[in-house]
């Protein structure tokens, strides 16, 4: 075990989501809908759920982000207290980040993000970032503002860095800064015209040791050491009810494997198992796969993945 105070510092991605289960997606226009499953607002955006997934797997996790002094901010702070995750919450005048997630019967989601709840001027608390990153083995950076400005500081810390580009289209320059300055890059293949070409471009122009593109039920692609392999999807342990948080769970389990010294194909297998588990958990419930169940469902010997 490293002498570092934290295994992982999660940077950014704190906020609240309002979850609405709708009869179908896309949702046809109507004057109104009756939502029998209820409408619930809870803490938990990408950084929160990566932190939760890491903590559930036994990693010492700390979360740093800007959070408003408001009701949603109270939900974020309580989320971390409840789950025993350290949180450094810096003031955000615009208010805590929030989104509305529409979830269809098949578990697919449509997220509506409130872009007014962001500090876009690029200011980061340099001393705080340096201190926390320097006390961590690894830093996972969310692409939420203003954390792009922290990337040079993370390099100084000596910690390895990962990021999740989510549904990047492969061209947007804001995401590119994260893609080219991380050791491990996660992204969704959803909006990519040519996922493999984008993955190779990230590896060639950046510093990534591994690039992972997830594609839901089609599995994922792993690019490592110049070799592209396919990571098969894993059968979920129950009915698929919600895809919210599946990518965050994948990233957390992959990083668990990485920090445990596992080969990258095993890390990817861990990610696939955790992502499948997340799809069986309603987004209104904060629950991630634990270490024992992950290791039971993904034995360490599973390292051979088919080439693409």
TrEMBL record:
The keyword Acyltransferase does not apply. GO terms for molecular function: kinase activity. It holds the Pfam family PfkB. Residues 7-286 form the Carbohydrate kinase PfkB domain. Signal peptide: none annotated. Keywords: Kinase, Transferase. This is Adenosine kinase.
């Amino acid at each position: 075990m490293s002498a570092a105070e934290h295994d992982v510092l999660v940077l950014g991605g704190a906020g609240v989501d309002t979850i609405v289960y709708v009869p179908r997606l896309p949702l046809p226009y109507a004057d109104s809908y009756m939502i029998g499953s209820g409408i619930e607002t809870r803490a938990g955006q990408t950084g929160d759920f990566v932190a939760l997934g890491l903590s559930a797997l036994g990693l010492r996790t700390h979360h740093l982000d800007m959070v408003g002094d408001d009701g949603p901010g109270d939900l974020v702070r309580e989320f971390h207290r409840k789950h025993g995750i350290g949180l450094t919450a810096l003031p955000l005048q615009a208010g805590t980040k929030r989104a509305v997630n529409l979830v269809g019967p098949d578990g697919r989601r449509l997220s509506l993000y409130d872009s007014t709840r962001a500090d876009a001027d690029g200011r980061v608390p340099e001393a705080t970032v340096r201190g926390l990153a320097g006390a961590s083995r690894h830093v996972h950076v969310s692409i939420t503002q203003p954390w792009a400005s922290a990337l040079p500081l993370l390099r100084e810390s000596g910690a390895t860095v990962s990021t999740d580009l989510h549904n990047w289209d492969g061209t947007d320059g804001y995401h590119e800064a994260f893609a080219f300055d991380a050791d491990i890059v996660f992204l969704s293949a959803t909006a990519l015209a040519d996922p493999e070409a984008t993955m190779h471009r990230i590896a060639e122009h950046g510093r990534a040791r591994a690039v992972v593109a997830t594609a839901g039920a089609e599995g994922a692609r792993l690019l490592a050491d110049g070799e592209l392999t396919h990571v098969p999807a894993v059968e979920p342990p129950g009915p698929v009810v919600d895809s919210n948080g599946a990518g965050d769970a994948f990233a957390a389990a992959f990083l668990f494997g990485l920090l445990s010294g596992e080969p990258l194909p095993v890390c990817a297998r861990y990610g696939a198992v955790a992502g499948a588990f997340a799809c069986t958990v309603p987004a209104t419930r904060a629950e991630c796969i634990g270490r024992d169940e992950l290791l039971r469902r993904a034995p360490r010997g599973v390292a051979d993945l088919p080439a693409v």
